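Title: Comparing notes on inverse folding

I've been comparing how different people in this forum approach sequence design from structure. To keep things fair, I'm posting one structure and asking everyone to reply with a full sequence. Here's the target:
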């Protein structure tokens, strides 16, 4: 049985996960009520940011140059997936509006996200052993991700 196409949406609280070029590998982490003070201090650091986003240095110019589009969608036909603010509609949806977003590093700051540029995302695998909520997106595109596909023989 074929699945019907879905319209996907994200709520405002989680839009920070998608303020990146589509294929940009990134890791975002934020505290929850169960986050331990030691994990908060180690990973979030001073200033108590809402979240931290880690991006490889090789992607920072693309992040700063990218323009993405944020659509406002009518909520009537959407149902929540109970997963990181994701919603889906099985019905066609006509957007109520569209906004172009540029200078995405600034958009992240406006969302309370501390953007951290790193040489490699690989050392951050330990984040998943912390008490923070962690989301890794497009990690297969990272230059150094441990599970990234091998470029093949040289």
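Reply #1:
Here's my take.
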């Amino acid at each position: 049985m074929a699945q019907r196409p879905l319209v996907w949406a994200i709520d405002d609280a989680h839009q920070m996960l998608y303020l990146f070029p589509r294929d940009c590998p990134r890791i975002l982490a934020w505290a929850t009520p169960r986050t331990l003070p030691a994990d908060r201090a180690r990973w979030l650091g001073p200033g108590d940011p809402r979240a931290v986003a880690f991006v490889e240095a090789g992607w920072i110019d693309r992040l700063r140059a990218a323009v993405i589009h944020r659509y406002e969608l009518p909520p009537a036909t959407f149902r929540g997936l109970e997963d990181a603010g994701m919603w889906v509609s099985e019905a066609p949806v006509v957007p109520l509006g569209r906004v172009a977003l540029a200078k995405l590093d600034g958009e992240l700051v406006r969302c309370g996200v501390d953007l951290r540029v790193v040489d490699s995302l690989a050392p951050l695998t330990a984040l998943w052993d912390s008490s923070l909520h962690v989301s890794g997106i497009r990690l297969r595109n990272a230059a150094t991700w441990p599970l990234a596909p091998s470029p093949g023989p040289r």
